[in-house]
Every structure is written in C-alpha cells, then in structure tokens.
Amino acid sequence: MSNDRGRPVSLYEAVGGEETFTRLVRRFYQEVADDPVLLAVYPAKDLGPAEEHLRLFLIQYWGGPATYNELRGHPRLRMRHVRFHIGETERDRWLKHMRTALDELDLDPALDAQLWDYLVMAAHSLVNVAPQDAPGPAGRGDLGITPA
C-alpha cells in the first residue's frame, strides 16, 4: 500500500488512524470490565489508565505518533507485564475480547489479519504462568477467538 505520493502507508493510516484504535481499545475494555476473571489481572479498579496505555502503544506500534514512548519510555512489554498473573486462561480471554472488538471495526480482511496476527503473537508472548501452575479448569474449549 502506498499513498498518492508513492510513500508506503502505515497500518495506522490504512485502518483510519487514531479514531480506529480508540474504538478498538474502548470496545476491548468494555469487554474486560464485564469479565471477572480477566478483570482480576488489572490491579486498579479504574481501567482508564490501562486503556490509554494500550491505545497509545498500538497507535505507536502501527505507525502513528510516538506518544507512548514520550510518556512511558520503551514498551518493554514482557517486563511491564511480568508482575501480573497471565496464564493460558487470561491469554485466551484477552484474545476473545480483542477479537470481539476487532470484528466490530469491520476492517479490510488483509488489515484485520495483519493486526490479529500481531495481537495473537503478543498475547502468547506475555504468558508467564505454566499451565500446571494456573488455577481453574483445564480444557476450556473454543472461546471464539478465531477470526470470523
């Protein structure tokens, strides 16, 4: 993809910029707020700061303004998440809610796939609890996280 000047277009620009990422993250956190299991991962009752951090991170990662770095420094995702209990259940629920939010954006399928592939990779990379150490039932089945 390139713009009318022949310059490559970032995914940030291609999906509609800040407005799209704001909608994505807002919808995702609406889902999180209604999920007691995933909500337990968040130390604060107010999800606003977490929402803003994720929104700014995704905007920056996909080619938008570097506001995240200006405010928080290098993302260091694994380091920033190591203090939180993130097992397979939490990962799967995070992905389920993100899939819901992403589906509501109704993006071009190629852009959706590119964004989804990154989100899946990132979610898997943040798991820090071995399955045998994670509380809760094994074998949760399909949580609806496969793209529609």
TrEMBL record:
<dbReference type="InterPro" id="IPR009050">
    <property type="entry name" value="Globin-like_sf"/>
</dbReference>
<dbReference type="Pfam" id="PF01152">
    <property type="entry name" value="Bac_globin"/>
</dbReference>
<dbReference type="GO" id="GO:0020037">
    <property type="term" value="F:heme binding"/>
</dbReference>
<keyword id="KW-0408">Iron</keyword>
<keyword id="KW-0813">Transport</keyword>
<dbReference type="GO" id="GO:0005344">
    <property type="term" value="F:oxygen carrier activity"/>
</dbReference>
<protein>
    <submittedName>
        <fullName>Globin</fullName>
    </submittedName>
</protein>
<dbReference type="InterPro" id="IPR044203">
    <property type="entry name" value="GlbO/GLB3-like"/>
</dbReference>
<keyword id="KW-0479">Metal-binding</keyword>
<comment type="similarity">
    <text>Belongs to the truncated hemoglobin family. Group II subfamily.</text>
</comment>
<feature type="binding site" description="distal binding residue">
    <location>
        <position position="53"/>
    </location>
    <ligand>
        <name>heme</name>
    </ligand>
</feature>
<keyword id="KW-0349">Heme</keyword>
<feature type="binding site" description="distal binding residue">
    <location>
        <position position="124"/>
    </location>
    <ligand>
        <name>heme</name>
    </ligand>
</feature>
<dbReference type="GO" id="GO:0046872">
    <property type="term" value="F:metal ion binding"/>
</dbReference>
<dbReference type="InterPro" id="IPR012292">
    <property type="entry name" value="Globin/Proto"/>
</dbReference>
<dbReference type="InterPro" id="IPR001486">
    <property type="entry name" value="Hemoglobin_trunc"/>
</dbReference>
<dbReference type="GO" id="GO:0019825">
    <property type="term" value="F:oxygen binding"/>
</dbReference>
